[in-house]
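re: that chain from earlier
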Amino acid sequence: MDFGIDEPTRELLADARQIGRTEARPAGLEADRNGAPLPPDHGYFTRFVARGDGRTRWPGPEGDRREQGPRRTTVQSLLLAEEGAYWDRGIGVANPGVGLPEGNVLGMGTEEQKQRFLGAFLELDRPRWACFAMTEPGAGSDAAAIRTQARKDGDGWILNGAKCFIGNASRSDWILVQATLDPTKGRAAQRAFFVERDTPGLGGFKIEKKMGLKAYESTSFLLDDCRVPASHLLGGEKPHEGKAGFKTAMRTFNAGRPVIAANAVGIGRAALDEALAFARTHERTGDARVRDRLEAMARKLRMARLMCLRAGWLADREQPNLVEASMSKAIAAQVGQEATTLGMELIGTVGARGDHLIEKLYRDVKAMDIVEGTGQVQRMIISRSLVQLPR
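^ sequence. v structure.
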């Protein structure tokens, strides 16, 4: 394995670093101080779109979209995810774009669905969002237990249920909603449906208050006899292989786990840099106990980064990486929490004022152990693999 950074990747990271320093961190601090997500018309989002960011990877109906350059490797994406989270992970989630459901639509959507739901993201005319809704009040880690129900009704579908902790839901042009055709049939009955904004029956949006990552909205909403046309069933009404809908959703989460790991490393690295700056400013680098804390942070972050890049390296070679992806997330989330905790111990009572960056990072990093499969779920996946049980 060679994790050397080539010149094109260095240039991408340099651009990300500049934008992070001048745009992302100030915007994230603003949202944290206000205790609420930035509004959709905020200047940060307008400038984001003006730079050409937030576009879909779909090349267009004829595949003739103007040349966008070579596609990023997974390792490149992970390095950029780490750099983005170093400056502000919440802003990274708040950024306009298709976001989490893009892979589902590219992998399983019909050409008509790609045109309808990704077409507006080819060249953004304004900040636009989309999102994926899986989590429910009674189905978090156990994604197979969802109860949002889809019932065929003439030439359409009726959706009923509740979703929670869905990123950017109230501002999205459309939501890809995971639902079940029959709750008694578990994973095999799950399908995904496009629900556009202002569809009758979609409502009850509530932005939850969170401990950290306040820059983006985590939203609960209801589907009350929400009717969508047959064409809004992801992949169309062609016969589906058993569990295809569930497997498509799980591939989204499996691909995202190393990204969350990279985010955790980025947050931990920011905490290390801030702790180092604090120790130098307050002339505490001569204290062996302080150096011990800093060494532990640096050593563990290096370990977590290598585990994350290993998962990405396998993905780039189209080799199985389920276990490595779970390991990277389980390790990095824990290390990120340890790094911010050690930082809080170092700054002491300064952290209690609520205005130090390390204190914000301490609150932000906790979500890395929760989103896209909790640490407990990752350890369950790893242990089942060890004893050769189905995963």
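The domain at 130-242 is CATH 2.40.110.10 (Butyryl-CoA Dehydrogenase, subunit A; domain 2).
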